[in-house]
Every structure is written in C-alpha cells, then in structure tokens.
Amino acid sequence: MSGHSHWSTIKHQKGTSDVKRGQMFTKMAREIAVAVRQGGGEENPDMNMHLRLALQKAKENNLPQENIERAIKRGAGSGEGAQDTLEEATYEGYGPGGVAIMLQALTDNRNRTSSEVRSTFAKLGGSLGGAGCVSWNFDLRGVIAAEVNPKEGEEIALAVIDAGAEDFSLDGSYLEIYASLESFESLRKALEQRGVKVTSAELSMVPKTTVLLDAKSALQTLRLLDRLEELDDVQKVYTNADFPDEALEQYKG
Q1: Taking the model in full, what pTM does it have?
Q2: What CATH number was assigned to the domain covering residues 87-136+209-252?
Q3: Residue 96 per-residue DSSP state
Q4: Which run of H or of E encompasses 116?
Q5: Residue 236 — φ and ψ, nearest 5°?
Q6: Exposure check for the chain: N or C terminus, fewer CB within 10 A?
Q7: β-strand partners of 177
Q8: Which are the contacts of 9, defined by CB distance < 8 A and separation ≥ 6?
Q9: Distance in angstroms (rounded) separating the CA atoms of residues 246 and 223
Q10: Which segments of the chain have a pLDDT < 50?
C-alpha cells in the first residue's frame, strides 16, 4: 500500500499554497453539495455518512462555515447554484512506467472534463484508458491519517490492528491506517479517544499491488499526478505507483 502512503505523505509534508487552498475549498464545497443531493436532500450528517465525511474533511481543512452552509443549501436545492447539475465521473489510465491511475471527478460538462483529463495524460507521459482497465487493482477502504509521536507510532498502530484495522503504514510521525467500511468510524473514534490527532479520515481507493518506479519515471508520474489533481473538475486521484526515496526527496524540494 506504499503507493498510496508515499504520495499522500509527501503531499502532507509539502503543505498547500494559497492558490491550491482556494481550489481545494471549491472542491470540498462541491463534495458537500453532492453528498446532500445523493442522500436525497438529507442534511443531517448522522443520517448521511458521505455528508459526515465531507464535513469532517472540510473542517479539518478550515473551510469557512459560510461556505459549508452554502454548499449544503445548494445540495438541498435551495441555494445559489442549486440548479447546476454535477455528475460523478471516473477516469482510468496509465502513467509513466505503466502504473495505474484512477480519477474521480464531479463535472457539469463531461465532454470538457474528458478532454482535459485526456490532454493532461498525453502531455505528461501517460495515457487515458477505458472503463475497468485499472479499477480491478483497487479496493474501496477507509483510510485514516494521524500525527503521532514517532516513539509511540508502532505501539499505536499495533493497538488499532488489535481493534480491527486491516493494515497500517508508518513514516516518522505520519501514520496511515487502513480499515474496512464497517470498522472505519469506530477506529477513528478509538484513535481520538486515545488522544491521537487524526488529520483526515476518508473513503479511498487503495491499490491491491504497487509498482516500484525508477527515479525518472517516478518524477514524471509525480508531476502527472499533481497536474491531474489541479484540474478543476477532478476531486481525487489514486495510483498504485511506489516511489524510490531519491525521487521523493527531489519532488519535495
């Protein structure tokens, strides 16, 4: 699972620029609106799991409360932009070195989004594939990220395994825990009760197997993943790429 862990760890360490933060706020608001709409207009997060996760993510990333309220109204059909129709779209393809890449998008114009995704793949050494070409290599799982004291990380990770987690990845103070959908929420609460700082908790497509890239292909892939994430309609990007330490250090720089 290091493909998921390594890339998310580096993004976590790099931080977020003001420009990307503004774009991230827009994407989180969209996610909230769609969660409300898909829940049949249900605005109570206790009754709408997808809304609960979207709100948690928004609050973890300091999305202003007024933005949250506006997004909920939009999803319920009563706010500004309520008539806009956002639909989910999934794209699958290959990056440099043949690694698998999956994208989840929310779009009001599928043709525009498909064109942008295809062009980005082509410009940065990848190729857009057909439906199902790589999704077989990913499982939907709960992924919880937390900051821990490096001296206690292993102990905490083993404790959550005993509590029902399926696996974990520890990189210094950054801990990622992988859980089934059934145990996801209870494990998050168990960590918080233990005093562990949970930085994110979301449903994610986690690769079953990973591909270790050489340094050149790794840097090309990292740039492709970054560019895909920057597309306005793309919400989430997943890969089964694993990156050598030298490429990660260069990317961080």
Answers
A1: 0.84
A2: 3.30.70.980
A3: G
A4: helix 110-123
A5: -145, 145
A6: C
A7: 144, 168
A8: 171, 174, 176
A9: 15
A10: 1-3, 5, 83
